[in-house]
Amino acid sequence: MSGGVLILGASSAIARGCTKALAARGYTLYLAGRQRDELQRMAADLEIRYGTVVHFGRLDVTAIREYGKFLDTVDESLGGLQGVVSAIGDLGSPEQDAQDPEAVVRQIQINFSGVAALLTHCANRLEAQGSGFIIGITSVAGDRGRQSNYLYGAAKGGLSLFLQGLRNRLFDKGVRVVTIKPGFVDTAMTFGMSGLFLVEDPDDVGRRIVRSLDGNADVIYVPWFWRFIMSIIRTIPEPLFKRLKL
C-alpha cells in the first residue's frame, strides 16, 4: 500500500522511539509538532540512519481550524495516509495548574479535546479509504484520578474513552484503533519528578508501541505489568483511596 504514517507530537521522547521503529520497518513518515527546527533535525537523522523518506511540518494542536489544511498537506506529501500515531501530551505543572481555571482548560485542550478533534479528521479520511490504523498514546494516569496529576489524568482518561468509541465506530470500516497506556517513561516531562519507579527507556516503549501493529490487542499497557498495577489501584475502595497520597 502506498502512503505513509503521520506522527503527531513527533518531538516527544516516546514519539522519537516510535519514529525510529517505524523507519526501521521502511515506512515513509510525516513528523508533526510545534518545534519545526527540531523536526527538521529529526527528519534528516532518520533519513540518514534508515534510508527512508521523512517529511515534517509544524502543527499547533490548539489551532483546530487549521487541521483540514494541515492534513491535506500531509496527504500530498505522503501520497496517502496509512496510519497515525498520536503522541501529543503535556503534563504541565500539576500543583500550579490545579489552582488556575485557565490552566485547567488549557490542559484539557492540549491533552484531550484538541487531540480528539484532530484524530476525528484523521479517522474520517481513513474511513473513507477503508483502511489504515490509529495508535493513540494515553497514560496509566487516566485509569484513576490521583491528586498528583488529576488534570492530566482526566484528559488522558477522556482520550482513552474517545479511542474506545472510535474503535467501536471504525471496527467494520477497515480501520484499526489501538490505545497505548504507558507507565513511567524517562522523558523530559518526568525528569526530576519524585516517587517514580520502574521507569522505562522511551526507545523501548516506542518499539513496543510499533509492535502492536503485529497483533490484534486493542488496549496495551507499556510495559505490560502496568495492567496489573493499575487493576490493583482501580480496586481500592474510594473511602480508603481518597486518604492516600498518590
Key features of this structure:
246 residues, Rossmann fold, single chain, alpha/beta, 7-stranded parallel sheet
Describe it for me?
The structure is a single chain. The protein is α/β, with parallel strands linked by helices. Helix content is 48%, strand content 16%. It has nine helices and seven strands; from the N terminus they run E-H-E-H-E-H-E-H-H-E-H-E-H-E-H-H. The protein has a seven-stranded parallel sheet, sandwiched between helices. About 2% of the residues have low confidence.
Can I get a quick summary?
This protein has 246 residues and is of the alpha/beta class. The protein is 48% helix and 16% strand.
How are the SSEs ordered, and which strands pair?
Layout: E1 4-8, H1 13-24, E2 29-33, H2 36-50, E3 54-58, H3 67-78, E4 81-86, H4 94-97, H5 101-129, E5 132-137, H6 150-170, E6 175-182, H7 202-211, E7 219-222, H8 226-235, H9 238-241
How is the largest sheet built, in terms of strand order? 3-2-1-4-5-6-7
Form type = globular
In angstroms, what separates the terminal alpha carbons?
Answer: 46 Å
CA-atom Rg in angstroms = 18 Å
Largest sheet: 7 strands, parallel
**Topology as a string of helices (H) and strands (E):** EHEHEHEHHEHEHEHH
Q: Helix content range of the residues, please? A: 40-55%
Please report which band the strand proportion falls in: under 5%, 5-15%, 15-25%, 25-35%, 35-45% or over 45%.
Answer: 15-25%
Mean of residue pLDDT values:
92
Number of helices: 9
* Parts with pLDDT < 50 across at least 5 consecutive residues: 190-194
